[in-house]
Write the structure tokens for this entry.
Amino acid sequence: MNPTEPRYRSGAVARMLRMPVATLRVWERRYGVCAPQLTPSGQRLYSGADVQRLALIQQLVAHGHAIGTLAPLDTEALHAVAATHAATTARPRTPEAAAPLRVRCADPRLRERLDALVDQPLQWVGPGEAAALHLDRHARLLPDAPAQAPAGGPRWGVLVRYAAAPAVAALQAAGAEVLREPADEAALRAWWQRLVATRPTLPPPEAPPAATAPPPRWDQATLEAFAGLSTTIACECPRHLAELLIQLGQFEAYSADCASRGPEDAALHRHLQQVSGQARVLLEDALARVAEAEGLIRSG
């Protein structure tokens, strides 16, 4: 063992992989995915190679491979499984090269490390340009102040060297994927994989608005008059229909009023207003047919 090689405790590894510590220990004890060094006090210490192996296994498990099948494989075999998986699931590609991933980063050292580490093509863009990822690196002490996510909504990654827990928590609360320096290749790779795996997707386009129902055919006074008429129909259909229309009209007006009170439930109440309006039109047609059959209104 190289005494100068960085070692990571199980809690740090779990945070890097965004994996519960309990899962990490089950993978170890039940499946033997790796063999971390044990200190005299019983602490598990993972090497950079261990972290890289765990990140690869985690990625393959997420793609549907069984942990029991992956655990006995060495790193070379795991990479072969990943390559086979990528080859069988990839869509047919045109001869043209894949579009590079647009990344905004002002730190030249970080850009250099990622160019050497990342397999996919990267396009480094300047401030204000559209990007899928925004990366920051803070080499000095980071103040304990509220953090603000970059404009435009890209996935946000931050490297920090000197930062207290409140400063890191503020970054994470603002949506940043945080990595503490110094970070070796395995830690940087795991950080990058989390970033590209959780890039935000565009929200689905809003559905076109439903057709607005026509205004009520009768006002409430007319409906109340219908409800008060006695007819020769034993089931008293005009009265029941008129009462339903009165209630439905009141609910339609209530939903329209709710839709204008604020954005929280506006979409739901717009939908309820549209549905109740459509139901009202159907019941108005039914009442018109019954009223014509009873001679209460003239046809045409």
In short: The first strand starts at residue 8 and ends at 9. The radius of gyration is 32 Å. The domain at 101-197 is CATH 3.40.50.2300 (Rossmann fold).
